[in-house]
Amino acid sequence: MRFRLSTILVCLVFSTLSPDTLSSTRSKFDSENWVRAEVDTLVAAARAAFEGDDAVPAYHKTLAAISRAIRRQRLDENNGFVLRHRQFIEYVRMASIDQLPDHELGFEVSDKQYFQQTRRFVEIPDFLLNRRFLSSVSRWETLDRAKAFLKEINSTRVPDSRLTYFSFTSRHLGTPDNDDSYRRLLIVVPGNTKTSVPEKWVQFGVTDPGTRNRTRNLSVVSAVPNGDGTFNTYFKDYFRTYRRGGSISIKGRWELGYGDDNCARCHKSGVLPIFPEEGSVNPSEHPAIEEVNRRFRSYGSPRFDKYLDESKFGPGLGSGNPAERNRRFGDGFSETVVGRSMNCAVCHRPERLGYLNWPMEQIVISSYIKGGHMPLGNDLKESEREELYEKIIEEYFAVDDANPGILKSWLLGDSQARSLQKDGSK
Fold this sequence. Notes:
By secondary structure, this protein is of the alpha+beta class. The chain contains 17 helices and seven strands. α3 runs antiparallel to α4.
């Protein structure tokens, strides 16, 4: 009788335990092996998402699953675990922000808060809302009239406050409202460092000749130097609405309900340098390209104010060292033409132009490298540029235990990465 009663009591106890509790009684959760496995899964998913948009949903599911596991196991409350894996914990949190409701921009605050708090930095200058100008800038065929208007504005300004402008065809991306629209008019409106007036890069998407579907997007990216060698950058996309009778209204893309994009994905350096499609810029406007890129270089190191801590995403492309490259790609590789060209981090590091790290836009990276614009000062053959791109991406995203890539090594921490290398070399 006592035996039967004991058996019944044991059954009752187990019937009240949750599946998670039962699981933990069968096998203790091994957080260290879990981290190693999840870092591999995360980096592989990130690489797939970098290489193709079709893989982005799977990447987001991977992030969500890791976040759930961290909460379920209370790993973020475990001081010892956090101390050992702070980079991993923070990376997962930061990389997941743009999946939160009203955080499409990828910032710590909501999109609504961001646009409210940064309004003065990203407002369109009043003179660019002139009806005559807006009508002219809407089509490629009438763009000369828009430029004549800007020239008229400059005639009333002192040299330091004059606009720099030119039209071009982008080699990278279409506009947010039209993936097939590459024509642009860029206007750089000078700021004033002493009075904290931001320098604004105002870019209008321009409708292609003969196209009925009007390009709507215009964007403002502003730069505010901080006086310590850094600058804060702010972003906003606007959409134009073309009405019968010729009127054109402008409102924020987000306010119109079209959502937004993760700003830092493309704008790792805050403001992007301009490398137009070859032959798309009138020779008379070439000095304007040189001037805007000179301004870009003069701003200093990019920051995103209080809205994003870019250091949480770790080192970027080209951060490897010669010994690691020789181990990965073969003895002597670091001294080859391609090996010596894997020097992105000479400029792209926190004290210069910011790291090129994930999340980042594949089209921009590929275009700069394969198009011959990066790395600066390297005269490479087309085949060498193809190899350079492949090697830089492999070095960053590799998950091999014997030769973990830049992202995996950083997520695991140096000591764990070295341990994996030793294990993998046995």
